[in-house]
Amino acid sequence: MKEAKTKSKNELLPGTLEMLILKTLSIGSMHGYGIAQHIQMLSAGVLTIEEGSLYPALQRMLVKGWVLAEWKISANNRRARFYTLTTAGKKQLGIEASRFSQMFGAIMRVMKTT
Amino acid sequence: MGSVLRRLLFFFQRNQFDRDLEDELRFHEEMKARALADADGLSGDEARAAARRRTGNRLRLRERSREPWIFPRVETLAQDVRHALRLIRRDPAFTVAAVATLALGIGLNTAIFSVAYGVLWRPLPYANPDRLVILSSAQQTTTGVRTFSTWPPMTYQGLRPRVTTLDHLAAYTSIDAQLTGRGEPLQMPALNVSPDFFATLGVSPVRGRAFLSDAAAPDDDRAVIVSDRLWRTSLQADPAIVGQSITIDGVLRTVVGVLPPDFTFRLVIPRLGALPDADIFLPNRWPADSGRNASLFLLGRMKAGVNKERAEAEVTALVNDPSIAPSGTLAAAGVFAPNVRTLAHAGGLQEQGTASARPLLLILLGAVSFVLLIACVNVANLQMSRLTARRGELCVRMALGAGRRRIVRQLLTEAVVLSLLGASLGVMLAWLAIHVTLPLVPQSVLPGLGGIMIDARMMVFCLGLSLVSTLLIGLVPALRVSGAAFGEGLALHAGAARATGDRQGERLRTLLVAAQIAMTLVLLIGAGLLIRSFVRLTSVSPGFESTGRDGVVQTVRLTLPERLADEPERIHAFARGVVDRIQSLPGVTSASLINSMPFGRMFIQGDVDIEGQPKPTLFAGAPKIEPGYFRTMGIPLLAGRDFTPRDTAAAMKVAIVSERIVRECFPGGPGQALGRRVRVNVIDRGEWLTVVGVVADIRQMSLEREVQPMIYVPFQQDHSGFLRYVAFVARTSTPGSAVEGIRTEIRRVAPDLPIQSTVTMDEAVAASVAQPRFRTVLLALFAASATLIATCGLYGLMAYAVTQRRREIGVRMALGAGRRDVLRLVLTRALRIVVAGVIIGLAGAAGVTRVLQTFLFGVTPTDPIAFTIVTLLLMAVGLMAAWLPARRATRIDPCAALRAE
Asked: What is the number of structural domains in chain A?
C-alpha cells in the first residue's frame, strides 16, 4: 500500500492525475471520496490518490472550467460536493488521453528494444 | 478568459471557499473512517483518528487548494503591502518622521504648482485662446524707445476695415463705473468695449445676448452686460434681470446679458500690474473723431494659419501708411511722434497677462522642488539606517531563498506606501495652505488668484510627485541591497547575525547629507539676497513724510462721475469746498488735494518744453494740487512759494517744478528757475506756465524707480479730463476720525458718490512693496523648511555614527581621551560634512542666483555679505545639530561599550 502511495505521488506524469479524474467523471458525477475510491478499485489498489493531491487537482480543474461542483446529498444521506464533467472537460479528456497514449506508446517502443 | 473571471469571483467568495473545503474534507474523512471501521474493525473514534492521521498536512492541503485560484502577483503585492504596514506600525517614530517630511515637501510643491498653474497655464475661458493677441506699439525717438500699450480711436477705426490677418479687432478701455439705485452706491471696475468684444473672445453671455455690432440698433448704446458676480451680489441673482434697467454713472441702462460664472478678462497694464476683474461692460463705438482723450487697448483674433509675425507686419504697414489717415498716417493720429516709424507688436493674450508673474513663479517652483529633493533625501537616509539595522535579517532571508529581487520589490513597496501616506497628508497641507494664505495675498501681486484651487489635475500632479519621491527614496536602499557589498561586515555571533559597522552605507548617507546641505545653502542664499534687497528697498525714502510728529497722512480717493468731465468749474468748487471743511476738522493739522496720488494707480505724464531752452529729454508728471499739498505731505519747499487760493482760474497760469527739473535744466540752481516759463504736453500741447516755486523730488510710483520730475499745476487752473480723479490728503494724528469726518463732508455735498479707497500713505507705500514682500516671505519659508529638514538629516546621521562607533569611542576613552576630546571628535566630523556641503553649495549658488537678478534691489547676485552670513549661519546650525549626539558620545561608559559587543 505504501509503495503504491509513493508511486502515485511521485511518479505520475504531470497531467495524468487530471486525466484519471476526468475519465472517472465521464462515467458520472461523483464526490471527491468516490473518485479516489473508483480509481483505487479499478487499478486494483495500485493507484491511491490522497487528499493532498486530489483536492488541489480538483480545484485546478474547477479554475480551468473542466468540471463543475455542486453540493448534493450523497448515497448515505450526507451532504457532499459532487463534481460533474463539462463539455470543455470532455474535450480535455480526449486531448489528455491521446497525449498519454502517445507518451505511453513512445516509452513502450523504447523499452521494447532489447 | 473564463478562468480569469472565475478567479475574480473567488476573490469575493474567499470565506465561503474555505468553509466548503472544510466541509468537503470532513466528509472525506468520515467516509474514510467508516471504511476503516468496516475493514479493520476499529471503533468509531479510533477509526476517525486513524483517518485523520492519514490525511496528512491539512494546512498544506488548504494552501495548495487555494493556489490555482489566486493571482500570484497580486498576492505577493498584497503580502508586501501588509508587511510594509506592519513594519510601519512597529516603528512609529520612523514613520512619523518620514511621512511628515514627505508631506511637507509634497504639500509645498503641490501648493506652489497649483498657484503657478492657476496663474500661468490654466486655459483662458475663451474660444481658441491662443489665437488672441494684444496689439501694442514701439517707437524709436530721440529719447529712446517708447512703448505704448494703447492706441487712439482714429487708428482703431482705420485698422478695422483694412486688416486681413485678423478675424476680429476689438477695443476696450478700463474705467470705474458707479452703480447706484441697487442698495449702497458701489464703485466697481468696468470695461468700455467695442460691440464685437465678446465675439472676438468667442464668449457669449449665459443669459441674454452680447452687444449688437455696428450697423444695428443705436439703442444698444444704452445697454450694459454684467458679470456673474455682480448679478449674484447686487442684482440678487434675479432670473428676469435681462431687460431690466440699472443706473450706471447716473445714466439708466438696460441689462442685455449676464456673463458665465467662469468668465474673467484680466487686464494687465504694463508696469502697474493686474487690475481687478471688471463687473460691468459698456458698449462704445469710438467714432474716429472721439478725440485724443481716449486711448484704447486693441484685442485681435488671428485668422487660421496666421502667426503673430504676419499680423505684426500687416498692422505695422497699415499704421505707417500715409494714404489711410486724413492727416498723415494712423500713427500720427495719436501721441506718437510724427514722422517716426511705428512698429506694431502682437503679443499672445495669455503671455501678456502673465508676463509679470511668470519669472517669480518659475523661481518659486524651482526653489520648492529643492525642498522636495532635500525631504526625499532625508527619508532615503532614514530608510538606509533602517536597512542597516535589518541587514542581518535580510541577508538570512536571501540565503534562505527569498531572492534579491523579492527583497528589492518589498523595499520598493515600503517606499510606495510611505510616499502615498506622505502624499495624502501633503495634499491636505496644500489645500490648507492655499485656502488660508491666498486670501491674504493682494490681487496686484498675483493676477488671477480666483482661478487657483486644488482640483483633479493637482491631484494627478501630487500623485506624480509621490511617484518621483518613491523612486528617490526606494532606489537608494534597493541599490544597496542589490550591491555585492551588502553582506560585507556582517559577523555571525552565536548563530545570530549582527550588523556591525556598515561602512559603505555610512559613506553613502554622508554623501547624501552633504548634498542636502549644499541645496539648503543655495536656498538660504537666495532668501538672504531677497531679504537684503527688501530691507534696502524699504529703507528708500519716498521723498515725502508719511509719518511725522504731527501724525500720519490719510488719503481718501474717489472718482467723480464722467458726466462732470465737461463741468470743470463744478469740480473746482467741490474740491475747494471739501478741502476747506476738512482743514477745520479736529485732529487735522493740514489738508489738501491731488489728482494723482503718489503710489496710487494712476500717473499722468507728458513731455516738457522750457521757454528759451532746447527741449529737454525728460518726461514729467503733471499732477494738479490744491494749496497746502506740500505742507500736508511733508515735501520741503526749496525756493519760491506754494500755490495760494489767489491762483484761481482767472489769474496767471503758474506751476511749481520739482528739483530734478532744476538739476537737469537750470544749472544755476532753484532760484534760476523762478519766473521762467515751462510747458507740459500730456495729450494736447499745454499752456505756458510761470514757475513760482521749487520743491523736493518724490518717488511717484515705486521705491525702486528713480525720482520723477514733476510740474505741479493748481487744481483750480486745470480743465483737463483728469480732474475727475480726486484724492483728498490730510495730515492728522487721529486717522480714524479724520476718515469719518472727510466722508461726512463729501456726503454732505455729493451723497451718491462712492468712496474708492481710504488708505494712509504708509499703507500705500507698503502696498507698493507687496510683491517683493511676497516673494521674500515665500523664499524665506522654503529656505527655513529646507534648513529644518537638512538639520534633522544631519542630526540623524551624527546620532547614527555615534551609535555605530561606540566601541571606538570607548577604546579612545579607555586610552585616556577626555570628554572634550570626544566632543571635538564628533563635532569636527560634523563640521567636515557641513563644510563639504557648503563648498558645493557656494559653487552652485554663485551660478544659480543669477536668476534672481530682476528681483534684487541694491544687491548683486553674488553679494559677499549675504554669502558670508548664510555660510556662517549654516555652519552654526550644523554644529547645533551635532551637539546632542556629541554630548551623548561623551557620556559613553568605556567599560560598557567595550563589553557590550
From this structure: 1
**Which positions in chain A touch B68 (Cβ < 8 Å)?**
56, 59-60, 62-63
Vertex B547: Cα angle to B546 and B549 (nearest 5)? 135
A63 touching B, CB under 8 A?
Answer: yes
| Per-residue pLDDT at B500 exceeds 60 | no
pLDDT score recorded for residue B784: 93
Of B56, B57, B68, the CB nearest to A60: B68
Say if strands B132-141 and B297-302 run parallel, antiparallel, or are unpaired.
antiparallel
Whether residue B64 and residue A52 make contact (CB cut-off 8 A), yes or no, is yes
H, E, C per residue of chain A: CHHHHHHHHHCCCCCHHHHHHHHHHHHCCEEHHHHHHHHHHHCCCCCCCCHHHHHHHHHHHHHHCCEEEEEEECCCCCEEEEEEECHHHHHHHHHHHHHHHHHHHHHHHHHHCC
By CB neighbour count within 10 A (0-12 exposed, 13-18 middle, 19+ buried), where does B112 fall?
Answer: buried
Contact partners, residue B167, CB within 8 Å, separation at least 6: B200, B300, B301, B302, B303
Of A55, A64, A80, the CB nearest to B3: A64
Whether the per-residue pLDDT at B296 is higher than 90: the answer is no
Does A65 sit within 8 Å of B68, measured CB to CB?
no
Q: Which residues of chain A have pLDDT under 50?
A: 1-9
Domain carrying residue A77: 2-112
Least confident of A18-27, B612-621, B728-737, B829-838: B612-621
Residues contacting residue B579 through CB under 8 Å, at least 6 positions apart:
B591, B592, B593, B626, B628, B728
The pLDDT, as a whole number, for residue A5 is: 47
Rounded CA-CA distance B577/B722 in Å is 19
Rounded CA-CA distance B121/B369 in Å is 18
Q: What sign has the CA pseudo-torsion B501, B507, B508, B513?
A: positive
Contact B50, B35 (CB under 8 A): no
In this predicted structure, what is the pLDDT of residue B495? 42
- From the list B368, B505, B516, B380, the residue with the least C-alpha distance to B878 is B516
> Over 80: is that where the pLDDT of B630 sits?
yes
Interface of chain B against chain A, CB under 8 Å? 2-3, 6-7, 20-21, 23-25, 27-28, 30-32, 54-57, 60-61, 64-69
Query: Closest approach of chain A CAs to the CA of B70, in angstroms?
Result: 10
CATH code (residue A20): 1.10.10.10
ipTM of this predicted structure:
0.86
Integer Cα distance of A50 and A36 in angstroms = 8
Q: Render pLDDT for B104-123 as a digit per residue (tens, 0 to 9).
A: 999 999 999 988 888 888 88
> Where do the structural domains in chain B lie, given as residue ranges?
2-70, 152-333, 358-538+771-900, 561-752
Among residues of chain B, what percentage have pLDDT more than 70?
Answer: 93
Distance from CA of A50 to the nearest CA of B (A): 7
Rounded CA gap, B404 and B479, in Å?
Answer: 10
Q: Show the CA angle centred on residue B30, arms to residues B25 and B34, nearest 5°.
A: 150
Given a contact cutoff of 8 angstroms between Cβ atoms, the answer to whether B369 and B784 are in contact is no
